[in-house]
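Can anyone check this?
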Amino acid sequence: VGGGSNDKLGALEAIFPSLNSTDWAMRIDAVTRLEKLAAEQGPELCARGKLLTLFDHLTPRLTDSNSKVNVVALQALQTIVPSVREGLSSVVATIVPAL
């Protein structure tokens, strides 16, 4: 089971470049993949100290110049926040200014 978690967390690093793509559709896809991964691996992300990195990459999408990306990122927070609630205090200073 541990190997599966490592694979999933490796997938996290693979998503980050797409979050900065010039193609808005790729950014939406990346946010959706990030949301799914966080929903599945929330406690693991907290335990491995990956939460700040996740939000460092997600937060710019909350203020994306494309409104579709912006809306998808805001909706993703509804899934991500409950999944990572244990570590939320460490990232709240990153998220709140973007809202």
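Reply from J.R.: I decoded it. The chain has a mean pLDDT of 85.
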